[in-house]
Specification:
The chain is built from two helices and four strands. The protein is of the alpha+beta class. It has a four-stranded antiparallel sheet, covered by helices on one side. The chain is elongated, with a radius of gyration of 15 Å.
Length: about 100
């Protein structure tokens, strides 16, 4: 699971989650070609909304189709790991 929980937001009832994902290209010998990062949205946004902030660094990706795929991957990561029912943040499962 790409998310880790930090202890800095225990006061607001939500846990901050940060994710740093490297996108590798197997055709280039598993070279890192891009990054998807879930960043800190700011105190006001984190406290009063369920909105998330993602950054996509396209790095060495030149093709527009692959850039669109990276944006779709960022949306999927947000949905799969950070959103729950009704837009509430999911609690991290302990496996």
């Amino acid at each position: 699971q790409p998310a880790t929980t930090c202890a800095c937001c225990c006061c607001c009832g939500r846990t901050c989650r940060e994710a740093y994902l490297e996108v590798v290209d197997p055709n280039r010998g598993d070279e890192t070609v891009a990054f998807i990062t879930k960043g800190w949205a700011g105190a006001g946004k984190e406290l009063f909304t369920s909105a998330n902030t993602f950054y996509v660094d396209f790095g060495k990706v030149q093709d527009a189709n692959y850039k669109a795929l990276l944006l779709a991957a960022a949306l999927f990561v947000n949905y799969r790991f950070f959103e729950g029912r009704g837009g509430q943040q999911r609690k991290q499962r302990e496996d």
